[in-house]
Amino acid sequence: MELTGKVVVITGAFGQLGRAMTQEALHQGAQCALLDVVTREAPAGAVAWQVDLSSLPDVARVMNEVAIRFGRIDALVNIAGGFRWQTVASSDALQEWQQQFAINLMTCVNASKAVLPHLQRAGTGRIVNIGAMGALKGANGMGPYAASKSGVMRFTESLADEVKLQGITVNAVLPSTIDTPQNRADMPDADHSRWVKGEDIAKTIAFLLSDAAGAITGALLPVTGKT
C-alpha cells in the first residue's frame, strides 16, 4: 500500500470527491484528517474537523491540531470548491465572481499556507490541488469558475517552484466532468458513461501523494475519463 503510515489532510472531505479520496487514502494505508465546513462521522482511521477554510487563522488552528493528534502531517489534498454558471451581463454585483474565487482559489491558498510550516519542518511533503479541464478555455457562463480554477493552476505552479528545493511537491489534477448524482441531475441527457469517476480521480491523486511521485512537481495532470 503506497500511503502506509502517511498522514493526509483532505479539505472538502465530505463532498462527493472528498469521500472518494478518503476511501482511497484509507485503502492505501493512510491516516486521514477530514476538513470541511460541515462534518459527519469519520470512518475508521480518520478524524473529522469542522473548519472555516476562508479564515486563515481557523485553518492554521486546525492544522496544528491535526499535527498534534497524528504527530505530523505528510500531505494535503485541496478538494474544497464548487461550481456556479454565471454570465457577466446577468450578474448585478458580480458576487458570483467573488464567491468562486473564495471557495475555489482562496480555500486552496489558505490550506496550503497553513500546512506549509509542518511540511517544511519535516523536509518533505505533498500538496495536490484540483484544477479543471473546463478552466483551460473560457466559455459562455464559465467566467467565474474558469477564472478561479485557472488561479488554482497558476498557484500550483508558483508554489511548486517556491518549495521545490525543500522536498515538497505541489501538483494539480484537472478533471473533466465528474460523474456525480448532482451532475447527472443537472445534465440528464449527457452521455454519463464518458464522465470521469471520482474513484479514478482519487487513485490519481493518491499516486501523486506517494513516494513514487517524488520527482513530479508543478504538473497539471488531466484526468478525463472518456471525454
UniProtKB/TrEMBL annotation:
Highest taxon in the source lineage: Bacteria
Molecular-function annotations in GO: oxidoreductase activity, acting on the CH-OH group of donors, NAD or NADP as acceptor
InterPro entries: NAD(P)-bd_dom_sf, Sc_DH/Rdtase_CS, SDR_fam
GO biological process: fatty acid elongation
Pfam families to which the protein is assigned, alphabetical: adh_short
PANTHER family: BLL7886 PROTEIN, SHORT-CHAIN DEHYDROGENASES/REDUCTASES FAMILY MEMBER
Protein family according to the UniProt entry: Belongs to the short-chain dehydrogenases/reductases (SDR) family.
Protein name: SDR family NAD(P)-dependent oxidoreductase
Native source organism of the sequence: Caenimonas koreensis DSM 17982
Lineage start: Bacteria, Pseudomonadati, Pseudomonadota, Betaproteobacteria, Burkholderiales
